[in-house]
Protein 1
Amino acid sequence: GAVVSQHPSRVICKSGTSVKIECRSLDFQATTMFWYRQFPKQSLMLMATSNEGSKATYEQGVEKDKFLINHASLTLSTLTVTSAHPEDSSFYICSAPRTAPTNYGYTFGSGTRLTVV
Amino acid sequence: AQSVTQPDIHITVSEGASLELRCNYSYGATPYLFWYVQSPGQGLQLLLKYFSGDTLVQGIKGFEAEFKRSQSSFNLRKPSVHWSDAAEYFCAVALSGGYQKVTFGIGTKLQVIP
């Protein structure tokens, strides 16, 4: 149990375009979704926390207008990288906590490798 | 704020040898503790987690970790390493209670030599 499906796994886009990344909780309701970014050979850095039905909370230094997060339902959260630039190329991973009825801790999506050319 | 320290960025072990990856955390209370493994270009897979109870936690793929409160440590161990264990390993902590964000260590890259 506690599966998070993340799509796409890889995406290449042109500079200036927007890219949407989806994370779905398949067998549980994810009222909270964490979005992380991982630079090459570095650890995961939390970008923002989305909560179903409310505005996302962004970490310091993360541009909220650049990284749009929507959490419109209990099973879907999306991250849209707007007007992408090469420096946005990174590995993006979502994570949802599941503590009821069983404490699974935090389940991660498989990640999205974004390359902006 | 909680923090996680993984002092070894890169470790090389021979196949069949034992392994211990170190992790220390900084937090006033006992947090939730995790070890994740990441293969190149892949997402994170949970190896094991500690919430409470027995301080020796068994995980998947033959891994175990021991929570030592006095040392604020949660080291990962495996008695005999296989070549397929080569990957990046992340120790992580989260505040207990509710939906708290996870803080990751910088990771330890494990190389396994024949």
Protein 2
Amino acid sequence: AQSVTQPDIHITVSEGASLELRCNYSYGATPYLFWYVQSPGQGLQLLLKYFSGDTLVQGIKGFEAEFKRSQSSFNLRKPSVHWSDAAEYFCAVGAYGGYNKLIFGAGTRLAVHP
Amino acid sequence: GAVVSQHPSWVICKSGTSVKIECRSLDFQATTMFWYRQFPKQSLMLMATSNEGSKATYEQGVEKDKFLINHASLTLSTLTVTSAHPEDSSFYICSARNREENTEAFFGQGTRLTVV
């Protein structure tokens, strides 16, 4: 069955610290992977996506993610977190470049301490 | 570009009434739109896939008579929650796929529905 697992429900980091949010997927075909961020009461903003090619993907707001096929993972990283990064982060997997429906993980809520 | 707009952003309705939510692609044509539902502090679950000019495809467990979807044009899909009840209160988000480009679907800002 297709699924996305985000093991960490809630993460708290200090401002300026590095961040890594974990994402593991189970998908029968070639996965197309996404990270979205959602602020309270808001829609989703795409941070980055992986379709093919270089397994290290750069996104907006200083985020990057690395696709590791052997580990079925697509972890999101940021070297230095800002207070404005506090939000909910969703990993998602889809087929055919996300043209079709997406399967979302449960989300990780990030809190940033000053 | 690639803006998807939902209307309204929030709505409060009484039990037993129906509510219509609109999803519009503002600067592109979308043959396919997706409707998701998000309960508080939970993830997004796909409800249905809306295809222009044809019937929507509903996910297992989603009542098609309860959640009516109409995709009458290439820029508009509507979700109508019929005979709403408090358990229908949720955050509804749509996404739309550009028919001209091989890119992912773009999300609207969501609609908060509260049924009292």
